[in-house]
Design brief:
By secondary structure, the protein is of the alpha+beta class. It has twelve helices and nine strands. The chain folds into two domains: 189 residues, Lambda Exonuclease, Chain A, CATH 3.90.320; 55 residues, no CATH class. A hairpin with a 3-residue loop joins strand 6 and strand 7.
């Protein structure tokens, strides 16, 4: 690896400009289609310089940066390991499009270990207790690919009052997967300026729904290759139906063992079949008998629904 540029004194716009020269750690989960907040289209637009810096920043990112020193200090307090701030963008020697802007490094028994700080909301606590969230696993393996490090400590402040950290070791198989997908994205989409194909992430669904929120009402003759997509859509739909029937069958078999019991235990698994009260409003009757109240508390929203016939 080599030092591309020091980040000391760089404005945010300058820093983003240098990041556009390659693929950083936080970009990898987007390319892999596992980032819940950012779509492949948004990443591509960013690398092509088509998005404004303010569109990339948000409060979650802002407070993540603000709380980074707190996470570092707490990690050192708990482990005794001192973190060195790198403040430099690193570049892979073998794959120049792979960049790394590390939160810090640790000298552990003469070897460089990466440190990564995170913040998370309370509802992510269970995920962090079980291990490293998938999107961050891609990020730290990317960093180990760039730096050739063998280990990473990743620590998270969860919900503002819970501190969790994990040791993660270098995974050569995952690194090779990362290199292939990054190289394909960089060479085929960024360097050639070709918009990437859609993936199945929620972030991409949200992006497309927002970008094409309004319907023109027009009809379009779709290209021939769309027939392959429709065939795949039909095949997956049938597969989902078959699997849902199998899942429903298994669920009913479990219910037959539970009988009137609410909780069941086997090994480390816990099964619950709990009573759930459902409260509903008769909308038609309310509208007919109390139209003013119905209109007062009615909110309307519109979206587009995809139907393949």
């Amino acid at each position: 690896m080599k030092r591309l540029i020091s980040t000391v004194g760089l404005s945010r716009e300058e820093w983003l400009g240098w990041r556009r020269m390659g693929i950083g750690g936080s970009d990898v989960s987007v390319i892999a289609g596992v980032n819940p907040y950012r779509s492949i289209y948004e990443l591509w637009e960013d690398k092509m310089g088509l998005r404004n810096p303010e569109e990339i920043e948000n409060e979650y990112i802002h407070f993540g940066n603000v709380l980074e020193p707190v996470v570092k200090a707490e990690f050192t307090r708990r482990t005794g390991l001192k973190i060195r701030n790198k403040r430099v963008i690193l570049q892979s020697d073998q794959y120049p499009f792979m960049l790394a802007d590390l939160d810090g490094t640790i000298n552990e028994n003469g070897e460089m270990v990466i440190f990564e700080a995170k913040t998370a909301t309370e509802y992510k606590k269970d995920v962090w207790q079980k291990g490293v969230p998938e999107e961050y696993m891609y990020q730290i393996q990317h960093y180990m690919a760039v730096t050739e490090a063998k280990k990473t400590y990743i620590a998270a402040l969860v919900g503002g009052n819970s501190f969790i950290y994990h040791e993660v070791y270098r995974d050569e198989n995952m690194i090779q997967e990362i290199i292939k997908m990054e190289e394909r994205f960089w060479k085929e989409n960024v360097l050639k300026g070709i918009e990437p194909e859609a993936d199945g992430s929620k972030a991409t669904t949200d992006f497309l729904n927002q970008k094409y929120k309004k319907s023109s009402g027009k009809e379009i003759e779709l290209p021939k290759e769309t027939m392959e997509l429709i065939a795949s859509y039909d095949a997956f739909s049938e597969q989902i139906k078959r699997l849902q029937k199998q899942k429903d069958k298994v669920a009913n078999q479990i219910r037959s063992y539970m009988k009137d019991c609410e909780k069941g235990i086997i090994g480390d698994r816990r099964i619950t079949w709990s009573p759930v009260e459902t409260i509903s409003i008769d909308k038609k009757r309310l509208q007919a008998e109390q139209k003013d109240i119905y209109e007062k508390y009615t909110t309307r929203s519109s979206n587009r629904r995809l139907n393949v016939a």
